[in-house]
Each structure stands twice: as structure tokens, then as C-alpha cells.
Amino acid sequence: MKISVFGTGEVGTAVASKLKSLGHDVALGSRKERHDQQIPVLDHAAAAAHGEWLVNAMHGEDSLDVFPKLLLDGKLLIDIGNYRTAIHAPIEETLGESLQRLLPRTRVVKALNFVSAQLMGKPEDLAGHHSVFIAGNDGSARAEVNWLLESFGWKDIIDLGDLSACRAMEQLAPMWIRLNEKFHSVYFNLGVVRAAELD
């Protein structure tokens, strides 16, 4: 699968490295091309052309500026971003819903936005039961992202339905910051414990 990851920071690099280790044809998307990297870094337009699937690993504000300028019709966009402002202010329109509104012919799926970069592709590094959430308006796109997360090693993937679930998912961002400050670590996550008959 040809997959482009937009964002060359800690999150984007971690996800791109995991995808490459699984055998995908991976490129990173950035404002400027760089040719000295193990994973090619393409400009945004070239990265969009490369990827059948795209991953948004940019801050929400940046992604709303970048993606509407690109040709993304028919592609699947996995949005793992959060707004910077979500840490200290209410969310008016969620990032996932905003991206879908701006990109009506792109299949947007929200996922992994609460998990640290260190755990996204290595959930086994945190012992015990813990969960990851997905949401998207297209059921087949959610199923495809579910498959990808399973290949990453995730065991408890909770499908929350359409993108209206982004409000619950993205409003967890301040909780992540507070837990990070509490534990002085990125090795934590949420786990949804439920009765057996609910699975």
C-alpha cells in the first residue's frame, strides 16, 4: 500500500517508521522535500499524489491549511491530529468533522489521537488492557483503518461510529496533557473495561 504521512515530527516519524516496517511504500509530507532521510520526504503536493492512503500527523490548525489545497478525491485520510487550542479552550467544530466538510470526496477516519507517538505503532510496549478509538462517516473506511490498526498490534479497537464521535475523542486531549504531567511519562493509555456480553 502506498501511504503518505503528513508531518515530520515525533508522531509522523513514528507512524511512518511503523508503516515502513510492515512493508508499505511510505513517504512523509512536508513543506520542503528532503533527500537525506531513510523515508523520502516529499512536498505536500507530491506526498498527496504518492499516497493511496494519507495520515494527518500535523496539528489541527496546520492540517486545515494544507489539505484543502491538495487533490485528495477518493483517498482515505486517517486523522490522528488534535488542535493546539484544544488543550485550553473548547472545540467549536472538531478537526475530524472540519476535514470531512472541507474534503467531501475524501474518506476521513479519526484514530489514535489520544495515544502517544511511542505507543501508536507499539501498543505492546504498554502492559495490560488498553483501547484505541476510531470514527468515520464511511463504514468501509473504518473497517480498513481497523485492519491497519490490527496490523500495528492493537487488540481493543472500539468503533464509535460516525465523525460526530470526534467531539468525545478530541476533547480527551487535555486529559492526556494532565496525565503526562502527573506520570512524567508517555507510557499510559485509556482502557475501556466492559461486560463480556458487550464485545
How would you sum up this structure, described in words?
It is a single chain. This protein is α/β, with parallel strands linked by helices. It has a single domain, classed as Rossmann fold (3-Layer(aba) Sandwich). Helices cover 34% and strands 19% of the residues. It has 8 helices and 8 strands. It has helices at 10-21, 44-50, 60-66, 95-102, 117-120, 139-152, 166-170, 173-183; strands at residues 2-6, 25-30, 41-43, 53-56, 76-79, 107-111, 131-136, 156-159. An 8-stranded mixed sheet has the order 3-2-1-4-5-6-7-8, sandwiched between helices. The radius of gyration is 16 Å and the shape is globular. The two termini are 30 Å apart. The mean pLDDT is 96.
